[in-house]
Amino acid sequence: QRSTTVQTLSALKQEKKKFSCLTSYDATFAHIISEAGIESILVGDSLGNVLQGHDTTLPVTVEDLAYHTAAVARGNEHALIITDLPFMGYATPEQAMDNATQVMRAGAHVVKVEGGTWLCPTIAMLTERGIPVCAHLGLTPQSVNTLGGFKVQGRSPEQAQAIIADAKAIEAAGAGILVLECVPSELAKTITEQLTIPVIGIGAGSDTDGQVLVLHDMLGLNPRPAKFVKNFMAASGGSIQDAIALYGEEVKSGAFPGPEHGFK
Ligand code: KIV
Ligand code: NA
């Protein structure tokens, strides 16, 4: 099996085939996820929550992300490795280039940044210099303090139009992938249809091109899971390997997410 690239995900979108992504922060899980045929691994700054025990992703540093990316890269076989840039790690294009360099050297294939139109010059600079960019819109957890909490985004027509405009802008700037988090399913559908680049959803309904979940959530380890999480450990009734394989199958078939996992 050849390694997955941004182009692989674009081709899957064109063929209307769904693909899956899971977070991982270490070599053992990266190996299991990759062996299960999950197309992409996200080294998310959610590691601040699930590994470090913080309430938000704000304390996570580029050193943390590079350390976990290097571990994931050692265990990975075929998956596309996307690594978050940290809070305030891309406030200027220069900071973005320095921090992206660190995580790319650690083994990332793509860097992810939270934001829309304001990030367009940064996205263009990184892409032109050989670093593919995944943008992240909707609920952007690094902005929890300006958003006033972890809330569904894009519920009003004005907010929805702003997210659509941001999505078009980041695509035009050269972003290769978009993550949409916690937006109404209808809005995610509209954006997925209007963009050429692959859109990965989390709490964004079943009509995005791909799906992502936090590994610990889908293994049933989070005592207070969000509405969009499914416990695949319970659903598979078997091993961690079985739970991850079932997730991949259900995303591919469209069985996950169901309407109960989305927002109106
Ligand atoms: O850090 C993370 O795990 C993420 C996903 C929830 C999209 O950004
Ligand atoms: Na993140």
Automatic annotation (TrEMBL):
EC code: 2.1.2.11
Gene Ontology BP term (one): methylation
Catalytic site positions: E181 (proton acceptor)
Catalyzed reaction equations: (6R)-5,10-methylene-5,6,7,8-tetrahydrofolate + 3-methyl-2-oxobutanoate + H2O = 2-dehydropantoate + (6S)-5,6,7,8-tetrahydrofolate
Chain residues that bind 3-methyl-2-oxobutanoate: D45, S46, D84, K112
Note describing how the cofactor binds: Binds 1 Mg(2+) ion per subunit.
Cellular component terms per the entry's GO annotation: cytoplasm
UniProt pathway: Cofactor biosynthesis; (R)-pantothenate biosynthesis; (R)-pantoate from 3-methyl-2-oxobutanoate: step 1/2
Binding sites annotated in the UniProt record for Mg(2+): D45, D84, E114
UniProt subcellular location: Cytoplasm
Entry keyword set: Cytoplasm, Magnesium, Metal-binding, Methyltransferase, Pantothenate biosynthesis, Transferase
Cofactor(s) the protein needs: Mg(2+)
CDD domains in UniProt: KPHMT-like
Gene Ontology molecular functions: 3-methyl-2-oxobutanoate hydroxymethyltransferase activity; magnesium ion binding; methyltransferase activity
Pfam families: Pantoate_transf
Enzyme class, UniProt record, top EC level: transferase
HAMAP family reported in the protein's UniProt record: PanB
Assembly information from the UniProt record: Homodecamer; pentamer of dimers.
Family indicated by similarity: Belongs to the PanB family.
Function: Catalyzes the reversible reaction in which hydroxymethyl group from 5,10-methylenetetrahydrofolate is transferred onto alpha-ketoisovalerate to form ketopantoate.
Protein name (Swiss-Prot/TrEMBL): 3-methyl-2-oxobutanoate hydroxymethyltransferase
